[in-house]
Structures
1.
Amino acid sequence: MQQPDTDILIAGGGLAGATLALAIARRVPGYRITVAEAFPLAEAPAPEDYQPSYDARSTALAWGSRKIFEDLGLWAAISAQAAPIERIHVSEKGRFGVTRLAARDHHQPALGYVADNRWLGLCLMDALRREPRIEWLAPAEVGPVRPLEAGVDVTLRQNGETRCFRTRCLVVADGGRSGLREALGIGVHRHEYGQYALIANVTTERPHEGTAWERFTERGPMALLPLQGGPRPGHSSALVWTLSPEALDEVLGLGERDRCARLQAIFGWRLGRFIRFGESHHYPLTLATADETVRPSVALVGNAAHALHPVAGQGFNLALRGLMALVESFRFARAHDLSPGDLTVLARYQQQHEADRRQTIGFSDSLVRLFGGDLPALGPLRNAGLVGLDLVPAAKHWFARRAMGLGATGSPRQPTDRYREHWQ
Ligand SMILES: Cc1cc2nc3c(=O)[nH]c(=O)nc-3n(C[C@H](O)[C@H](O)[C@H](O)COP(=O)(O)OP(=O)(O)OC[C@H]3O[C@@H](n4cnc5c(N)ncnc54)[C@H](O)[C@@H]3O)c2cc1C
């Protein structure tokens, strides 16, 4: 019988796959880890040569995610270019209710942080290169999967060559349109929101002062997240603007000045005038959840397991908590001399992560449905919700903990809390 080429093969070296590789290397002794990434490894500059750019996309990292990166020894690097979110301001256009959350009310220095994805990628690549147990193959594509009695064979395409590659455990981290999930015949529960997210970095006349703005409009939610650098430090924010397909076409047809004016009309003047509207990217918004996240020798993580609406900035934060649950399961496997692909090992990951997954998906989906739809009857209810939240400290505390990625307090302990404690 052919020996496995690796213990754990991670298919996809995006944010989820790369973080998982690092976490296994740093938390679980002994395993050989291979990451196959379809995209060519960019000639990434060293982190010290990094310059924030106008086309960068950003991720809001919850407070809980900071704790995870601290544990992985990566936070010192990430924090050099991460802007703290000291306050969150939630409002609805044309309505009175406003909710304000402040880090100091929750005895934390920040509710979360905003880091641009390119910076996160550079920090991860820099750390991965220094891990001798990680083999990084790029560009390399993982193809069809053939389950074995113990482990799986996959087809690996690299440098124009195709070879069979055997692993004891395959981690599917190939993103929201996961070809491997489909090849495995794993079903997906999909809800199309019929909207797009337009992403751009913008400059405002007034400084953001560490405030993240969530604004719900009749056309869908909009978020402005404070950025660390930018051409005018302290005045740059990352915009996530939800638009219908027609509205997206309209905005894309506008020049920079008109885009600023359109944004101004919706967001208002809390940050003064919008001065610049950087390069934009747009994404169709879908909630996609895989029907299964584990099978013998196979685990799904990141967007391959669940792709969320970005309104509440929960997708990668949820993914990170899932990765840590998987790492804990691999530690269990090492301690009990089990294969990392053993179903009892992977089922632990699934069980530990499931409640968090369900609650977080439900939380962001209900935010979109409550605030995102063009349903006038919901207006007063939504308004009451925001006003109520501002007045009731316990409700605010609950919302803040969710936003921080810490889970709700006061509720019965979930199994996920057990592994989270380890990381907090
Ligand atoms: C507009 C927007 C804003 C967001 N904002 C936030 C936020 O503020 N906070 C937050 O927590 N989350 C946010 N998210 C979610 C977050 O971006 C995702 O959760 C995260 O990027 C998922 O990473 P991933 O590694 O699972 O997938 P991806 O980033 O899609 O990576 C998948 C990788 O797999 C590779 N690949 C694909 N097929 C193969 C194959 N066959 N073989 C080998 N490699 C393959 C691809 O090249 C890619 O590099 C946002 C998402 C969107 C769309």
2.
Amino acid sequence: MRSTTPASERPASPAPAPVTAVLPGPAPAVVTAMLADIDPARLRADVDRLAGFGTRHTLSDTTSETRGIGAARRWLLAELQRAAASSGRTGELAMTAELEVHGVAPDGKRIDRAVEVVNVIAVLPGSMPEARRRRYYVLGHYDSRASDVMDATIDAPGADDDGSGTALVLELARVMATRSFDATLVFMATAGEEQGLVGARRHAEAAKAAGLEIAGVLSNDIVGDPSDPRGGSHRGEIRLFSEGVPATADPAAWQLARQTGAFADAPSRQLARVVAEVAALHELPVRPRLVFRPDRFLRGGDHTAFNEQGFAAVRFTEVAEDYDRQHQDVRAEAGRSYGDLPEHVDAAYLADVARLDAAALAHLANAPSAPGDPQLMATALTGDTTLRWTASPEPDVAGYEVLRRATSAATWEHAQDVGQVTEATLPLSKDDWLFAVRAYDRDGYRSPAAFPRVARE
Ligand SMILES: [Zn+2]
């Protein structure tokens, strides 16, 4: 017999892991000022506008000016172009906005005819030449679906999934375009997510082939509703999913992870930790609840398309999803209402999620790159730990820190300044700690942790 616990007796989901404050204060004032510019009223209007296209199904109408995915992507492009025009940026630092068109043939799955899958992308070039190659993405998918994933005509308002993430991308483009960051920021609204991550996968594959340096991707998918269908609210939190071992790990990498206990140190996991550290530093009203797995059961998302190509990518999703509202025809049935309607998106909460993304992106894009080729020296039986790395190329690098945590800890616990060096020995046993190294610059911005490989000579 099957045992089911009544909802009222279920324990709450686990509390977020405590984040030890390994980012020293004070929080940079320029970032705090930027966060104040994020406007819940614009986010409200954008979610309503996106839902107002009726459906944004990837196979829906592209000629109407008012309904379907074509109208939606032209509106998104116009909004990004407006942000670029009003940014005051010119020349090689100007923000560009464009449609990225991918011709896709029927795939025998969720694409049943030839279709153009079109991502809408704005690129804000980094202001530091040595950092400009490095790209940080914020993305949401602007396509939507109803109960039948192949129904391209029925209403699919997609307000939360993923009008919320799309509106967040637009708002960050507006607010960040007027400011300068060392590395390049990419604001992307993808299509084809519901048909199998098509737009994100095409973009990630092309980026890999072109040798683009994608250093981090923040995917926002279903981020506008803090309410819990079982009752209550999770107003102060958002889940943040990340892979602990890279999707691209080969058997040797898995073997090394088994041997060293390093199952939670993929670049994507370090990216998730940066988000948590930045949220704690800025005392943000929405903090990430780190979930140490790539995604939810039975669901996928665009970050996975980047993970598959070896890029660090993580996913934000609200704490308690309401399955009556996702992937459902808008209807009432047996006294229950279904559908992903704008009234279920809380703009004030969405604005606070946007602030979390914006703060993390600002820190990442202003910080130096993570130190190159980090190595943990395993050459002799000693009670010390020696780490080596190569210098980060940015001219404002002021030094390096060795991070460490207990092998059983979820987040970095200690940061030790070792100065402007590329090798450090600590009087601590490598058997008992997990170590990493990060770079910091003159303004106090910290790179993500670079987790070392084991070197035997
Ligand atoms: Zn989605």
